[in-house]
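Q: My labmate handed me this sequence with no annotations at all. I'd like to see what the chain might look like in three dimensions before we decide whether it's worth expressing. Could you predict it?
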Amino acid sequence: MSDATKRALDDAIRAHVADESSGFVTAWALVAGVMDDPDADVRSEWPDGQPGYITVGLAASLGEMTKVRGNE
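A: Here is what I predict for the chain of 72 residues:
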């Protein structure tokens, strides 16, 4: 992902959260399924400089949220 695209994504995520809640973004992670590339079915991105443990924690939280919603 280019630096310009990553900056635009970061800006969009922060703007969306600001529009939808009174909170603010402290960290984010994006996971996307890719259907047209047989060598990569899942891709992920996170902000430069974000510690790995934060990204892993967000991914683990997503897994737990999915279980709670009954979508295992």
